[in-house]
């Protein structure tokens, strides 16, 4: 696992060059955003030791296997850690795939569940330290992004990917179909992409790909394409 410092307080942990989670430095400790696939815990704990600070909180953008795979191991190793997830997404941690009124999308898959119970469920606008939770459904029904209110860094989970340019969840490109294949609702994803862009983040950090500085122009293009494709789907 490679440790990359994106800002003074934001550290990207990347595995296989394509799977990211993040450590956010706060007064008194670190917040871990996402936990990677199974087997990622030793690398995360080693990174925290390198930074010389304890992990105080674990928060999840969503419940896909590549984001929750090491949650139970880390929580076992860090019994005092606070574990938090979005209120809607918390059901998917229990493998409850029921839908609310008005929710439609592709069959939900890739959710292994976790044994650990979150100590806190998050709603849109809630704060976890310096991170503001932003409800951004589409990739999954309860996806959350996190905005660092200190410097405008946006940890967007899988609402965007940056492996081949900035692409919004749900968008299909022949040379990179994964943003579409693994997203639940393309229309919701486009709306969430626009909501996140309207926050005017100074940088865009994602679950898959490099962190992008000054991302607004690229996000504009990604949002425009997302709406074009979602509108075609509705025609």
Described by strand count, sense and barrel closure, the largest sheet is: 7 strands, mixed
Number of helices: 7
CATH architecture: 4-Layer Sandwich
What is Rg? 16 Å
Q: What do we call the CATH homologous superfamily?
A: Ribonuclease Z/Hydroxyacylglutathione hydrolase-like
**What is the typical, i.e. mean, pLDDT?**
96
Distance between the termini: 44 Å
In terms of topology, how is this protein built?
Layout: E1 2-5, E2 10-15, E3 19-26, E4 29-33, H1 41-51, E5 55-59, H2 65-68, H3 71-77, E6 82-86, H4 90-93, E7 120-122, E8 127-128, E9 131-135, E10 144-148, E11 153-155, E12 160-161, E13 167-168, H5 178-181, H6 186-197, E14 203-205, E15 212-213, H7 216-234
Parallel strand pairs: 4-5, 5-6, 6-7, 11-14
Antiparallel strand pairs: 1-2, 2-3, 3-4, 8-9, 9-10, 10-11, 12-13, 14-15
Helix pairs in contact: 6-7
